[in-house]
Recover the amino acids of this structure.
């Protein structure tokens, strides 16, 4: 197991440095003069230009700049935002809980609906329910989620007035940020109705963000169930006279869970990508909206830092999934 | 079934390939979902090719007396504009029809690029192994660590918004998927007896790579191509929606949707109809791709 772990981590280190390199050249690929890009103005006098260039450390050789950048990254220094003058890492940390809250709820919804739906479809293969489930999940998989979000807003917010259109909580509530998670903070505060408001605000974005993972989890669960149900040990269990429920719970589900868990882990990257659109539609103050706004404002340090953190997180999650997979399935770790 | 096939040697002759096509088609025809997907794709292709004839009006033609006219099925609609008009008095149906051209073109160009470059990278990595393999696959790992939309956003942020740059961005995003798939199939094929036989018979490395191995790696790539086609359309539309893809007045579906956002309440059809177009197109390609996967991968046939 240790050797397997070491090999996995050994693979990730070069990738991590590759991503640092990628984000380093990213900012240098932007067309135009770096000082002008930084200041957002043109026609700077040569003396001032040279001084600024020195101040930003851009007059040093590229290799030295890169080493400085790597050293900064390893210290947790990701630069300063052009527009707010705040350290990128601090801005990220203040917005990240909003994205985690949304992502967590979306995964939860996807798992709570997707796994039972997939199990049922796998058990009743070829039935009307199976066909409906497969059609629904393929539709969910094909959904342009920006449009889906707008449809839900149009129906539930604009026409039915059931849910609010945007934000995390009603502006009339003043909730102190303790954990950064609005639902928990609202519960901790004394404001009545704050929790309800937070939940209502969370509802539609969660559904929108959960659509894609829900479809993927349901399909994956179905095919994993089909695979497992065809095995001999299931036939044995049935022949022993075990009830259908017992066969599924005790024998089939456990073995089917391994690929399902993997798929859920791999959805994290997809979710962070989906959060970009979902957060933009619902004005959800998280990482996705932050990055889209950074692009519009040409705030390159934010983009650079944000990309680096998200890529590192995705790699970390993939590593955890890989290791978990190795733990659950001895064939994998001994196979190499 | 699959185990039996592994045991036999696989000739790469033309006859074998034709029979594979026939077999695939037979299996595909039995699959109702795949056939409806195929029908929609063909219909879309025809619409795109004959857009100028099919569309009742020009995509940029403005009718100033008919601003935000509702579609024919709701009150105040007329057959002159079956899907209504947008805020500038342009016929929504005509714009959607011309938009199908763009969407299919986006899918085609993006997938051709990623298929060619990604396939080539995967072929080289899998066939030569060693340093080439290491370098190529680590580079692909870096691209894969970024969520696809984020990577596309970053590329567009550097290159600047626009349809061409959006297509380049999406193509780069798909590159690693093709490379990985190609490498995996090359590796599994290279160990087969028929490849060894060909090598023993004195085939050159080039011949081994292009004539012996490559044709047998096509099946998984076909599936990936179809599924990427829909993903490309979806991603390009998402970039258009975020204002980073095609710019107005281009009748790209995502862009159309974004520029109509402020009329969501007053004129929902300018938002809902482009979305329907995207959904139907993407769904059709996914149905077809799913059917192809079932047809080409005997392991999934149960």
């Amino acid at each position: 197991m240790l050797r397997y772990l070491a090999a996995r981590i050994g693979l990730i280190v070069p990738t991590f440095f590759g991503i640092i390199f990628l984000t380093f050249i990213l900012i240098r690929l932007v067309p135009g003069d770096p000082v002008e890009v930084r200041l957002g103005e043109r026609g700077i006098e040569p003396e001032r230009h040279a001084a600024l260039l020195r101040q930003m450390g851009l007059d040093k050789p590229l290799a030295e700049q890169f080493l400085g950048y790597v050293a900064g990254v390893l210290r947790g220094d990701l630069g300063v935002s052009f527009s707010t003058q705040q350290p990128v890492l601090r801005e990220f940390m203040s917005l990240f809980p909003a994205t985690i809250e949304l992502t967590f709820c979306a995964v939860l919804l996807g798992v709570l609906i997707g796994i039972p739906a997939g199990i049922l479809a796998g058990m009743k293969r070829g039935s009307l329910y199976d066909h409906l489930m497969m059609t629904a999940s393929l539709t969910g998989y094909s959904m342009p989620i920006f449009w889906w979000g707008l449809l839900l807003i149009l129906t539930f917010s604009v026409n039915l007035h059931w849910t609010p259109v945007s934000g995390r909580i009603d502006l009339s509530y003043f909730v102190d940020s303790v954990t950064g998670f609005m639902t928990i903070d609202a519960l901790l505060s004394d404001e009545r109705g704050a929790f309800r408001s937070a939940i209502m605000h969370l509802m539609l974005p969660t559904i929108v963000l959960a659509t894609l993972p829900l479809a993927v989890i349901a399909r994956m669960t179905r095919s994993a169930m089909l695979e497992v149900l065809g095995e001999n040990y299931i036939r044995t269990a049935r022949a022993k006279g075990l009830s259908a429920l017992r066969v599924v719970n005790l024998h089939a589900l456990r073995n089917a869970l391994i690929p399902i868990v993997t798929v859920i882990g791999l959805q994290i990257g997809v979710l962070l990508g989906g959060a970009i659109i979902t957060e933009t539609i619902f004005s959800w103050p998280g990482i996705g909206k932050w990055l889209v706004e950074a692009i519009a404002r040409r705030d390159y340090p934010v983009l650079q830092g944000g990309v680096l953190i998200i890529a590192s997180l995705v790699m970390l999650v993939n590593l955890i999934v890989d290791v978990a997979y190795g733990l659950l399935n001895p064939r994998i770790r001994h196979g190499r | 079934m699959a185990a039996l096939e592994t045991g036999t040697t696989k000739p790469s002759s033309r006859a074998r390939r034709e029979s594979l096509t026939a077999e695939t088609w037979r299996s595909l025809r039995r699959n109702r979902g795949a056939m409806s997907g195929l029908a929609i794709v063909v219909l879309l292709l025809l619409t795109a090719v004959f857009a100028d004839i099919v569309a009742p009006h020009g995509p940029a033609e403005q009718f100033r007396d008919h601003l935000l006219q509702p579609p024919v099925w709701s009150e105040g609609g007329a057959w002159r504009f079956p899907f209504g008009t947008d805020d500038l008095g342009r016929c929504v149906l005509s714009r959607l029809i011309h938009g199908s051209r763009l969407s299919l073109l986006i899918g085609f160009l993006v997938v051709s690029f990623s298929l060619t470059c990604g396939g080539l990278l995967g072929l080289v990595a899998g066939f030569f192994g060693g340093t080439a393999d290491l370098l190529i696959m680590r580079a692909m790992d870096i691209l894969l660590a970024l969520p696809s939309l984020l990577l596309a956003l970053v590329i567009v942020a550097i290159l600047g918004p626009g349809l061409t740059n959006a297509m380049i961005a999406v193509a780069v995003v798909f590159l690693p998927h093709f490379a990985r798939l190609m490498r995996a199939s090359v590796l599994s094929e290279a160990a087969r007896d028929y490849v060894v036989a060909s090598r023993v018979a004195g085939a050159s490395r080039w011949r081994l790579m292009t004539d012996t191995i490559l044709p047998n790696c096509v099946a998984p790539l076909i599936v990936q191509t179809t599924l990427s086609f829909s993903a490309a359309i979806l991603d390009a539309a998402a970039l258009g929606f975020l204002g980073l893809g095609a710019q107005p007045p281009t009748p790209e579906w995502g862009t159309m949707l974004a520029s109509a956002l402020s009329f969501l309440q007053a004129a929902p059809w300018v938002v809902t109809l482009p979305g329907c177009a995207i959904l139907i197109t993407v769904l059709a390609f996914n149905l077809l791709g799913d059917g192809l996967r079932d047809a080409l991968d005997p392991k999934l046939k149960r």
